[in-house]
Amino acid sequence: xxxxxxxxxxxxxxxxxxxxxxxxxxxxxxxxxxxxxxxxxxxxxxxxxxxxxxxxxxxxxxxxxxxxxxxxxxxxxxxxxxxxxxxxxxxxxxxxxxxxxxxxxxxxxxxxxxxxxxxxxxxxxxxxxxxxxxxxxxxxx
Length: 141
What we know:
Blueprint: H1 2-25, H2 28-35, E1 38-53, E2 59-70, E3 76-81, E4 93-98, H3 113-140
Antiparallel strand pairs: 1-2, 1-4, 2-3
Helix pairs in contact: 1-3
């Protein structure tokens, strides 16, 4: 029984740690701040392409769009969107999300469930798995 309890707390701690680390890696705090803020219409002022290789060594072309928008306060902000897969050409408009406090951290990524809730989902699923495993261990040992 004691082994199951220790396992449960270690596994739950690992799930909490992994959830927070994944949230940081996926830029969760920045995206949530932008999505909870304001929106603006941004114009694509340029597209930069670069040749990369996928993990298997296959060459790929990746595009990075430079977007420019005006904040509600009248400030013009220009940024390069590296995360979203945009299908816009130079001169076209796209909706961007930004925080009033940090408009330089704007994003063109549309709000989605997983990045918004990953910091809760991973520990919750990990906690359930840890609990089930601990109950099975307690029954077996």
